Amino acid sequence: MLWDYADGFLLEAEKRQVEAYMQQYPEYRVKLESILAEKRAFAAMPLEKPKAGFADGVMAAWAAEQAGAVAAKPAKPRDWILWALGGFMGVLLLGALVLGIGLAPAMPTVTIPDQYVSQLPVVDWAAILGSAVLRYGLILMLTVLMLQILDKYLQQRNRLAVAH
């Protein structure tokens, strides 16, 4: 905040806080004086007009540097983790669909003897399993799980890229 104080960017309340802090800690008053001296030194420096074509030269050097960096950069390999996660999710969804369609006609009907019917709790499984909340909740949960896995992978990849 000392730089903002020196530049006059602080509100009155913030200025009072900085001044009170500097009264309590005099070493920050010394730092402020150093900042003000540096500002005065910069203000005293004579301004030089750049030579004609200076900006063009800078831009040409930057473009050449960027072209060299792009050319030196190795080709990025395909990200096999992303492809594997997508393939895994596809196989899971396709497998559930195939099992559901394939096993539905082959499942035998189960009848419960009448003597046990009164002892069974009555649960409307059709309403529970047919619930949109359950279907969309399951899809949402799987999506969030896959996104968390992807996030962890990308964080790790970024850490490795920064380390190199």
What does this structure look like?
The chain is elongated and about 100 Å long. Helix 2 (12-24) crosses helix 3 (26-44). It contains 8 helices and no strands. It is an all-alpha fold.
Annotation keywords:
about 160 residues
Any chance you could write out the topology, listing elements then pairs?
Blueprint: H1 2-7, H2 12-24, H3 26-44, H4 54-72, H5 80-103, H6 114-117, H7 125-129, H8 132-163
Helix pairs in contact: 2-3
**What is the number of domains?**
2
Biggest sheet architecture: none
Query: Distance between the terminal alpha carbons, to the nearest Å?
Result: 35 Å
Helix-strand sequence: HHHHHHHH
SS summary, helix count: 8
CA-based shape: elongated
Spatial extent as radius of gyration: 35 Å
Low-confidence stretches: none
- For the secondary structure, the number of strands is 0
- Which percent range fits the helix content? over 70%
Q: Quaternary status of these chains?
A: single chain
Which band does the percent of strand residues land in? under 5%
Mean pLDDT: 83
Structural class: mainly alpha
